[in-house]
Design goal:
404 residues; VC0802-like; Rossmann fold; 33% helix; globular; binds S-adenosylmethionine
């Protein structure tokens, strides 16, 4: 570790099921000692790695720098532990701070109360030392502090991202039910897509999956359009390193070799997705149109289709089941040669597609536990195999219908 270029131990937070994808992303970015944990990946790197991680990671929600760990069995021990940290090295006495707390503890059960206690400890330290105190600013803080308590173990980190990294800046709030950008990127990366060939989203909503696919196809850093990252307001911010990291990442953007198409049954979704695609700078790369899934056909040559359909949790199974059956029929009829991945929280409805998944992955869409199923639609191969099986007279049915 050199004085001029110190190494930091960092933790990138992610969603359940995306840890290995994030670990691989970090290795590609030059991070060292990369280790996957539950919803997080720890790693080491210098400032350039920290900046690159924020700019380029597709499946990270936050990049944290842990600065202290201690045990606390009550409020007083928590307050004292936080007050022992020398906050003057991170924040000016008239600076602005925000604290986010996550808890897995029987001792501490109210995250807002813990944030308040920690804020008091920091503010008291400044007041006692300088007679002045920093203020709390939820939207434009100079320092975002992350407190995580697991049982009695308190981890204090500086949040180098500040606002969550899923806020790429291309999407405004919409009334649709958009999928989180980090989930969307992770879903595409879990398929092993190489960023080339046909990519279809037939229920594209606000276009999140299409835009994430477009950025992957062009090797575009997902957070190029962010107004600011937390580390840009830190005392140790090095603008030269950051501008070099940005330039290097921009230089690696390439022409797309993918044919990315989206459709949706509502005009509104298509209007919103067009606006978002424009904001993401991907007008040339993504085509969308207003169509029902019942009337679309996969472009020749096969490829990848990802569907985030309505889950219909509140609908009777007959009704939502008929919709999923229609999806399965349409995949078989019009998407020969495609790998189709479908995410849904409705496992009973997924079975109604009548197709046997070749892969099942557990993911979360927000708080909803989902299954992400892969269906390989290869009619030609299947028919040939079926024929061969029939000729051999073994009568074996080739797994078209899911059992159980
Ligand atoms: C859960 S949303 C997709 C959200 C999208 N992934 C996003 O990030 O915004 C489901 C979408 O399926 C569309 N949809 C429902 N039935 C459809 C059908 N039969 N054909 C095409 N689109 C349909 C809805 O209009 C809605 O936009």
């Amino acid at each position: 570790m050199s004085e001029l270029n110190p190494m930091y131990a960092m933790v990138a937070k992610t969603q359940f099921g995306l840890e290995q994808i994030l670990a691989e992303e970090l290795r590609q970015l030059g991070a060292e000692e990369v280790e996957a944990h539950n919803r997080a990946v720890s790693f080491k790197g210098d400032l350039a790695v920290m900046y690159r991680a924020n700019l380029c990671l597709r499946t990270a929600l936050k990049v944290l720098v842990p600065i202290n760990k201690f045990r606390a069995n009550n409020e007083t021990q928590l307050y004292d532990g936080i007050k022992k940290i020398n906050w003057g090295q991170y924040l000016e006495k008239d600076g602005r701070l925000v604290i986010h707390t996550s808890l897995r503890s029987d001792i501490f059960t109210h995250s807002q109360y813990v944030s308040l206690k920690c804020k008091d400890a920091i503010v008291d330290q400044f007041r006692e030392k300088y007679g002045e105190r920093p203020s709390v600013d939820l939207t434009h803080p100079d320092l975002s502090i992350d407190i995580h308590i697991n049982k009695d173990e308190v981890t204090v980190s500086l949040d180098s991202s500040s606002e969550s990294l899923h806020r790429r800046g291309y999407r405004t709030d919409s009334t649709l039910a958009p999928i989180n950008e980090v989930t969307a990127a992770g879903m595409i990366m879990l398929t092993g897509w190489n960023g080339e060939g046909n990519y279809y989203d037939p229920m594209c909503g606000s276009g999140t999956l299409l835009i994430e696919a477009g950025m992957i196809a062009r090797n575009m850093p997902p957070n190029l359009k962010r107004a600011q990252f937390g580390f840009e307001r830190w005392k140790n911010f090095d603008p030269m390193i950051f501008s070099q990291v940005r330039e290097d990442a921009i230089a690696q953007i390439r022409e797309s070799k993918a044919n990315i198409i989206g459709s949706d049954k509502t005009f509104k979704a298509i209007d919103i997705s067009r606006e978002n695609i424009t904001r993401a700078g991907l007008d040339e790369d993504i085509k969308v149109s207003n169509k029902r899934f019942e009337e679309v056909k996969g472009p020749e040559g096969g490829g990848l289709m990802i569907i985030n359909p309505p889950y219909g949790e509140r609908l009777p199974i007959d009704e939502i089941g008929a919709f999923y059956k229609m999806m399965g029929d349409q995949m078989k009829k019009e998407f020969d040669g495609y790998d189709v991945w479908v995410i849904s929280s409705n496992i009973a409805a997924l079975k109604m597609t009548g197709l046997a998944p070749s892969k099942k992955i557990q993911l979360f869409n927000g708080a909803l536990e989902c299954r992400y199923h892969k269906f390989e639609i290869y009619r030609g191969t299947r028919d040939k195999k079926k024929l061969a099986a029939q000729e051999e007279g073994d009568g074996e049915r080739l797994g078209e219908v899911e059992k159980g």
